[in-house]
Specification:
The chain is mostly helical. The chain is built from 13 helices and four strands.
Length: 396
């Protein structure tokens, strides 16, 4: 006879006795939802690649979509499996389709971690796993793309491009400087240290203003750039997690605030010329007012970023304005700064959604040597993969 046992404690179902689907909180409906988003994003990326004129055939558009989503999926599943390993509740990756309105047809992919990560080692592992996994895929795409470059005659398949085709016919090489048909616009992609280094080993590497016609190179370049953005050492971005685990709360705050100062300089390079052109359109004498408007906007941004701590606001505000002015007037020029406006968007995204400082974790533990090496390696990857002026338009 079984004896009934009464207890005041609630009996919790053992985690280990549950099925894999239950432990991962997965249902077939959940899997179908995420897969549907993946398929929609795939279609969106391929369609946009053709629609904006980057692809010269459907097959190249499909190749680009496969490669870009391979990078995005690897990055996000790196986070996902690290979270699963540490028994942190999380979702499968959400792929985000955005046809036409995004130049690549997607806003990327994200996972949602459903509970706080209370241990700095777990934080480090989850933060670094995505960028490292995605970086390996991007590196592989670039190496394969460079190694299998079609002959330079591939340019003849591009629609238009009469001036470029004429140059290639005459010299059988790409020009060093952008060349385009009269009255047309040229989309320039920013070079990076790693992309330039890899490309130096191969012949007939397309210039940065034609590279997006080559799907492996374009997907690889985007992978490097998105990896670098995620490794930005601020707030709760992947790089913020890594720096927090490496240096602790206080030093992370200093690094993050200092880096936001660099973003303020880059933002100024994009904002001031745009404001100046708009003001001159009303009255040519209003041009200098662009610095006043940007100075006021930057002041309020820094107040929010640094929690109204004026010992941080004053030096970074003044330093950012002076640095932007020196770069614009002495090096870059007011007419060559169109691509820097992306950094204002990135700064505002960080300011209102990511935040500058990382919230403290409950358990801070020193990292082992392997994690320390990987952490600083990820910061080296950030430097090698970032482009100060990632995408801008030239008028011919």
């Amino acid at each position: 006879m079984e004896e009934e046992i009464n207890s005041q404690y609630e009996i919790i179902d053992s985690h280990e006795n549950r099925s894999l689907f239950d432990r991962l909180e997965l249902t077939w409906l959940t899997i179908l939802k995420h897969f549907a988003l993946f398929v929609l994003t795939f279609i969106s990326v391929a369609f946009t690649y053709i629609y904006i004129g980057f692809a010269i055939s459907l097959s190249l558009a499909v190749i680009f979509a496969v490669m870009l989503l391979a990078f995005l999926g690897t990055h996000e599943f790196g986070h996902y499996f690290a979270s699963v390993h540490h028994k942190i509740r999380t979702t499968l990756p959400y792929f985000i389709p955005l046809p036409i309105f995004s130049p690549i047809g997607t806003m990327g992919a994200v996972i949602r971690i459903k509970e706080p990560v209370d241990d700095s080692k777990k934080l480090f592992d989850i933060g670094i796993s995505g960028p490292l996994a995605g970086f390996i895929v991007s590196l592989g795409l670039l190496i394969y793309g460079f190694a299998t470059l079609p002959g330079i005659e591939f340019v003849y398949a591009f629609p238009g491009h009469a001036a470029l085709k004429e140059y290639v016919t005459q010299f059988h090489s790409f020009p060093k400087n952008p060349i385009a048909d009269q009255g047309s616009q040229i989309l320039m992609l920013g070079n990076t240290l790693l992309y330039s280094f890899l490309g130096s080993f191969f012949k007939h590497v397309p210039p940065m203003w034609e590279m997006y016609h080559y799907p492996f190179l374009f997907a690889g370049w985007l992978g490097l750039f998105f990896t670098a953005l995620n490794l930005t050492p601020v707030g709760q971005l992947d790089g913020g997690h890594v720096i927090y685990a490496l240096l602790g709360h206080e030093k992370h705050k200093q690094v993050a605030r200092g880096f936001f100062g660099i973003l303020s300089v880059l933002s100024g390079l994009g904002v001031v010329p745009v404001l100046r052109d708009e003001l001159i359109g009303y009255n040519p004498s209003l041009g200098p007012l662009s610095w006043v408007i940007w100075g006021i906007l930057l002041f309020f941004m820094l107040r929010k970023a640094f929690n109204n701590e004026h010992n941080w606001i004053a030096p970074i505000w003044g330093g950012a304005l002076i640095s932007s002015a020196l770069l614009l007037y002495l090096i870059i020029g007011m007419n060559n700064a169109s691509g820097y406006t992306v950094w204002l968007v990135w700064s505002l995204f960080i300011l209102f959604f990511v935040k500058i400082e990382h919230p403290p974790v409950i358990i801070e533990r020193p990292l082992d040597k392997t994690r320390i090496v990987l952490g600083w390696l990820s910061m080296l990857i950030f430097i090698l993969c970032i482009s100060p002026n990632p995408m801008y338009i030239l008028n011919s």
